[in-house]
Amino acid sequence: MKSGEKTVLIDTVKRPYFEYFLKNINEVCDPEEIDYFITNHVEMDHSGSFPLIIKHLPNAELIASERGVDVLRAHFHHEVGDDIFNKIRAVKEGDILDIGNGKKFTFVPIPMIHWPDSMVSFMTDENGKNVLFSNDAFGQHYATSKRWDDENDLTEVFQEAEKYYANILLHLSGLIAKALPKVGALPIEVICTSHGVCWRSHIPEIIEKYTKWCKGEIEEKSVLIVYDSMWDSTKKIAETLTKEIKHRGIPVKRYKLTTADYSDVITEAMKAKAILIGSPTLNNGLYPTVAEYLSYQKGLKPMNKVGLAFGSYGWGGGAVKEIVELMKGAKIDVMEETIEIKFVPKPEDLDFKEIIDKLVEKMG
Ligand code: FEO
Question: Can you tell me the mean pLDDT for 38-62?
Answer without folding.
Answer: 98
